[in-house]
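Reply to dn_fold:

You asked what the input looked like. This is it:
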Amino acid sequence: MFGGHFTSPAGNPDLPAQRELAYRKRVVQTALRALATDVEAPTVFTVDEEREA
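and this is what came back:
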């Protein structure tokens, strides 16, 4: 799963508090979707950071 940076894999400390919370929520939702998805080949699940840039 591709999300945050190496130093903050499940967050983005550059964001204001409310946007950081929304970003972390999307990270968890993406992780849950990845766990619930049957994959047969390498698959990358990406947290859409564009909405918070």
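The chain has one domain: 1-53.
Hope that clears it up.
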